[in-house]
Structure formats: structure tokens, C-alpha cells
Amino acid sequence: MAKNLESWFGIGCSLSETQEKLIIRYPGQSVLLPCSCTDQHTKPVSVKWEHVDSGGTEVSNETELYTGRVQMFNKNLPANLSLLISNLTEQDQGTYRCSINNKQFINISLSIKGCTLSETQEKLIIRSPGESVLLSCSCTDQHTKPVSVKWEHVDSGGTEVLNKMKLYRGRVHMFNKNLPANLSLLISNLTEQDQGIYRCSINNNQSINIRLSIKGCTLSETQEKLIIRSPGESVLLSCSCTDQHSKPVSVKWEHVDSGGTEVSNETPRYTGRVHMFNKNLLANLSLLISNLTEQDQGTYRCSINSKQSINISLNITDASRDTREPVDQMLIIIVCALLLILLLLLGGAAYTYWKYGKGRKKSNEKETGQRRNEDDITYSTVIHGGNSKPPQDQDNVTYSSVAHGKKDKAAKTEDVTYSSLVHGKKGKATQKQAEEDVTYSDVAFRKNKSAEQKDDVTYSSLVHGKKGKKTKKQAEEDVTYSDVAFCKAAKSSGQEDKVTISSVAVKAQKDAEEPTVYASVKPGKK
Fold it and tell me: Which of 22, 177, 448, 489 is deepest in the core (most CB within 10 A)?
């Protein structure tokens, strides 16, 4: 009856909304496209959902594209004509239309916000063998996910990077199962064969390339070294990679002299005495050996990747013997230095003493020469007395003094001889008269100091006093000076001139009879 009334009066479902809507969803999500009658107690004669953008394709489970993904609610709620689409893909986006009774409809635009790669510029990543690397690839919107994603190794002909591939088995991992927008790839336990270009591509239309460089270890030194230690000490055998961020695939220490015995704590000979640092510092491959013995000496080899190696010679010596030798050498050097200083001091003292002695000798010789000159004087006194007078008579006395110069060297200062003649008056006179009536005669012989022994010249000065008694003043006034110079003959060969000076007191001619002569002579020192 009610149905007939609806048909008769044309009363039925009228869409509650007819204005177009926009709904945004992400791939993998679900979407509810709303469509309903205004009166919840009514229902349309017919209802249809179609995808306008795909040529009006009907959206139902009977359509292959949507099989198992769509659901409608009008079976239980006739006025509810909404459509639920699950597990959306980018192909699901577009305009959907809900039409009833072929008269009314509503359009709903569905936007599937698909994955857009956050980065597309090529990158360079450097790693070392044995390390792990994360090759980044992700969608800009973390709520999106691509329809498809693929990782491949371009340098090996586009080999797909999957765990099922022998080269990567057990070494790769992806995160998009739990995080659909995270398309990154993790590769563990890298080898040098893993380097090259990796490509992440989504939906066959976007991609990013990542260049992976596996920088292997290169030994910082390969020249053989010599290390000297003493028993009981420790030694650090240096071995390291040039790049402190790299590490070798393998490293091995061996004692070459003992047939290549591996140096590790697993070897009984080295148990508890060796330590390596590469666990915390991958590039530091050095080896520490403690409590050294003489058996530890020899050549040790650090080799990496079975390619590069460095040899280190370890020499174990007795420390006491080694330290004693330098001390002995130092003592020898010190003793020699002290001896040299002592010799220099003695030499200086000897030279000073010699200089002082030489000066003193010269002074002594000068004083001795003067003394000898004084000593080399001959005093000769000749007394001529008449027969009638005894020698004791001191009135008519002649004093004669003779000084002989030394016959040393020809170059010496002129030797001077002085001779004084005193002639006494005839007859006895008083002492005062004897002093007045005196004849003074000075004779000086002077030798030249030329080394060629030129002629010696004798100078004689005679002073005659007048006869008769005069006063001292008159005697001084009545004086006749006579200067006579005699040149001596040249020297005889091989002998020097000998000069003899004598002073004689002669009485007057009236007393010409032979006198008695008393002479006293004091020869000078030779």
C-alpha cells in the first residue's frame, strides 16, 4: 500500500547532498565516499557508483580493479548509499559519481596523494670494508607510499639488491613494511665488491642514484723499523691505516723468525701478554706486547687483506750492559777533558815561569855584569923611592889605578879604562905640599861596540901642575890641558886587543939612580 502511494505520488529518495566534494587520501588507506537519501526511511529505486575518470567504470567487487576492495551499506540501511574503498592506490584517485534513479547524482573527487621522492640528486657515501651503510630513499609525505619500489646495483648490470640474491644474501634489509614511505636500503658487512652506483626507483617513473665508495685500509708506513727493548719491558709495534675512518677486511700479526707464528692471546707463547686496539679504533692495528723476554726478539709482520704488510725488528738487549757502556764512554771523555785542562794549566804555568825566569835571569846577568865590571878592576901601586929613603916613606908616593874593561862581546857597551898618574915632587914635602904639587893624568881607553871589531881609540888627558908651592886656587889656575888621541893598530888574527894600563910615579931626573920599587897589584875577576 505504501509502495503504491510512493509510486502514485512520486514520493521517494532524495539525495541529501548534491554539491561536489574533495577527499584526499594516501595510498594504502581507505576512503568512504558519502551518498544518502534525505529521509532515512526511504530508498532509491536504483543506485550506481562509477569512476568518471576511467570512462564511467562501475565501482563494484565485480570489477577487477576493485575486487575485494569495495563495500556498500544499503543492504542494512537502505537510505545509506555510501561507498567504502579500501587499500587505495594512486590509480584509485579521480572523480566518483553516485547516481540514483538515473536522475540525481553527486560527484566526489578523490585525490590519492602518492609517494614523491624526497631527494633525487645523486649522493656519494664512503665506507670501509666490514662496515654497514644505509642507502636513503623515502617519500616526501610520510603518509604516502609508492605503488612499487626497486633497488638495483647499476655497476653490475642492474642486479636487483635482494636477500634472495647470492651476492647480498643475509646482508640487506628494507623498512617499508612498517613504514611505507621509508624505502631505504641497509647493507651490512661491506666488501670492496659492494662499491658502485645503487638506484632506488618508485612506480617506474622516479629514481635516485647513490654512489657507494668502499675505501679500504692503506698502511700509513711500510718501511721496516728497528725497536730496542730490555727484558721485562713492553713494546708497541705500530701498524695503522692512513685514513683513520677506514679499516681492513682482515689483519694479522705474525712472528716471522719463528715460522710465521701468529701473535695473539690464543697462542700459548703470548697468552696474556698481547693487546690490540682495533676494536675501538678500527684503523689502529698496533700490537702491544708486555713482559718481554729474549725469546720475543726477531721480526714481526703486520699484514692486512693479505696484500700489504710492514716488518718491525725487535731487539731485546740487557739494559745494564747497554747503560754501562755509555757511562764508561762518558767517564773516558771526562777524564780526557780533565787531563787536557790540566796540561793547559801546567803549560801556562811553565810558560809564565819561563818568562819570569828569563826576565829575572836577564836582571841577574845585568847585575852580575855590573858587579863584574866593578870587580874587574886592577889596582896597582908602584912606589919609587930613592936609595936614601925607605919604602915606608909615604911622601913621594904615586897612586895608580887601572880599570880593565871586560873582554866579553864586541857588541857590548864601550869598555872604559880610567888611569890616574900622580907624580910626587922631589924631596920630602908636607902632605899639603904633596896635594898641591900634583900632576893628574887621566887616561881613558874606549872600545867601539861594533860587531866588526873596528880600531879601538884611546883618549888620554894629562894635567901637569906647576913647580913650586902654590895655593890650591893657583894650582887650579896654572893648569895645562893636553889632549892626545892614539889610534891603536888593528887586532891580530883571532885575538882581541889587550890593554894594559900602568901608572908610574917617577922622580926628578936628578934622582935617576935605580929606585927600589914596591908594587902591589890586585887583579880583577875574570
Answer: 448
